[in-house]
Amino acid sequence: MSELRLERHYPISAETLFAWVSDPDKLLKWWGPEGLHVPEHDLDFTRKGPWYSVMVNEEGERFKVSGHVTHVDPPKSVGFTWGWHDDADARGAESHVILTVEDTETGARLILDHRDLSDADIAANHEKGWTSSLRKLDAQIQ
Questions:
Q1: What is the pLDDT of residue 142?
Q2: Measured by CB atoms within 10 angstroms of the end CB, which terminus of the chain is less buried, N or C?
Q3: Do you know which InterPro entries this protein is assigned to (predicted)?
Q4: CA-closest candidate to residue 28, choices 59, 54, 48, 8
Q5: Alpha-carbon span 63 to 71, nearest angstrom
Q6: CATH 3.30.200.40 fits 2-141, yes or no
Q7: What is the average pLDDT score of the chain?
């Protein structure tokens, strides 16, 4: 199994940053890599339970991912399972994501841990996707 860890620092409070990673309205402003939009979703990381999103690129290709929010500890962390769907809508291998928010002297830090990825190539692909998504978050906050 492989995993990845990304960190970002923001000049805002931990409470405000936690809202950006949990509240559906804020989450939709940065969810998914650049060039994709999210026309269908149940993205609410403020509560435990199922979630999903369908991301669509400029060519109309659809990418569905879903999971279950496993814990919510405002304003510290939220965790959820993650699984891509194939063209027949069958859910594939499950991995786990934890978004942790910590206070810093100059604001707050976001730590993204994506665990239980099946191999290094899958981890590298997820790193590209999360890095692109976090650039969208950076643009919203900075």
A1: 75
A2: C
A3: ASHA1/2-like_C (IPR013538), START-like_dom_sf (IPR023393)
A4: 54
A5: 25
A6: no
A7: 96
